[in-house]
Prior knowledge:
The protein is an alpha/beta fold. The protein folds into 2 domains: 3-69 and 177-246, Rossmann fold; 78-173, HAD superfamily/HAD-like (Rossmann fold), CATH 3.40.50.1000. The chain contains 9 helices and 15 strands. The strands form 4 sheets. A 6-stranded parallel sheet has the order 5-4-1-13-14-15, with helices on both faces. α1 runs parallel beside α9 and α5 packs across α6 (156-167). The chain is globular, with a radius of gyration of 18 Å. The chain starts with a strand and ends with a helix.
Amino acid sequence: MSTWLLDLDGVVWLSGEEIPGSAAAIALLRDVGEDVVFVTNNSAPTISVLQRRLERIDIASDPKDLITAAQAAASLVPEGGSVVAIADGGVREALTQRSAVVADDGHADAVIVGWTESFTYETLATAATAVRSGARFIGTNADPTHPTPAGLRPGTGAIIAAVEVASGRACEFAGKPNDAMARLVRQRAGSISMVVGDQVATDGAFAGVLGAPFSLVLSGVDHLAPVGVAAAPTLHHVVTEWLAANR
């Protein structure tokens, strides 16, 4: 069995609303025996929240079908370590699974910054203090924007930039296209048929790290395909074209 790696935001949905044809495309892949794994740089939702969102648009999933930047970031923290987490539930869930302790002050083994709407001056000060004190500075992903039906909103990269400036230290990234995420994918997937994403700089680069084919969809962040990059309007177009060529 070979695997398709699908981004979620901008590929399967926009803010939880299905991009037309996504559920049907995934059903087609599964019908011909392809494995489907969702690989997302959105670190905010927990695995159960992501599963419920998929279920609402008629896509069944198992927890092992989801790999997140939150999990990748947590994998860089020692078992039982202390972490300042400027992030939402997905990161905190992943840290709990590693028996890590979420710290409330500026003294910790690591700082993880992920996407959150609860970013304040005080959380910035706490994170910057911990980083200046020697904590490992981990970002879930560098994406500067996040696609929504109303357009692009600031992404995790924008929050991380504030902590970098305040602490004077650069962040190391865990999510796509970085090694921590690639390790999780390799542990889960065998041969990879296709990586599908909406950003060449993130998803396309990740396909390159994995040595896998990449297809860009124009339903998310990138609306123009660079020369030499395979592109289609939506996931459904990618899947039907692949099936026509390979079945």
